Amino acid sequence: MSWLRHGFEINTDKTKLDKDSILRMLRATYWASEVPADDLWESILNSRSYGMYSPDGEQAGFARLVTDMTRFAWFSDVYVLPVHRGHGLGKWLVETVVNDPAITKVRRIMLSTKDGHALYERMGFSVLAGEEATKMMMLMR
User: Fold this and answer.
1) Alpha-carbon span 70 to 82, nearest angstrom
2) Which residues does residue 52 pair with via DSSP β-bridges, in sequence order?
3) Could you give phi then psi for residue 21, rounded to 5 degrees?
4) DSSP class of residue 29?
5) What is the pLDDT of residue 40?
6) Model confidence over 18-55: pLDDT tens digits?
7) 11 closest CA partner among 61, 82, 74
């Protein structure tokens, strides 16, 4: 699938992804800096991936969903290159992923963020609280 806005494109075609650019950007994040590059790339290939491209074709951003395409999705690895920030591209990327027709059946989309709460709350996400929060568990390996 492909979406266009102001010369930028978001596309789910994994053959268009710039592996080196994505890995370089994700390795600089707080959430993926410790993940071996090969594991990080394999996780991208096994996900629904959304590449964002600038008008000149540069990998300008990225996001992915780990999903069964019907009941659950984990929203991950969202970024826009610093040079392209401040123009609403991050908001557009999140909107595009959340509204992707291919995942309309997905009932629960979850994510974890240290600093993006305001953006995600505008898209309908909420912080888990009360009974919902107490249901969540995690196994770290």
Assistant:
1) 33
2) 10, 61
3) -65, -45
4) S
5) 96
6) 999 999 999 999 999 999 999 999 999 999 999 999 99
7) 61
Question: Which pair of structure tokens corresponds to residue 64?
Answer: 């992915």
Pull the structure tokens for residue 67: 């999903």
pLDDT at 62 over 90: yes
Contacts of 59 (CB under 8 A, 6+ apart): 17, 18, 21, 22, 51, 52, 53, 81
Cα–Cα distance list, 37 to 24, 25, 73, 86, 119 (Å): 9, 11, 22, 28, 28
| b/e map 16-44, b = 16+ CB within 10 Å | ebbeeebbebbeeeeebeebeeeebbebb
Region 54-78: mean pLDDT is: 96
pLDDT at 61: 97
Domains and CATH numbers, the chain: 2-112 (3.40.630.30)
Does the pLDDT at position 95 exceed 80?
A: yes
Structure tokens of 7?
């010369």
Task: Tell me, letter by letter, the H, E, C secondary structure of 103-134.
Answer: HCCCCEEECCCCCCHHHHHHCCCCCCCHHHHH
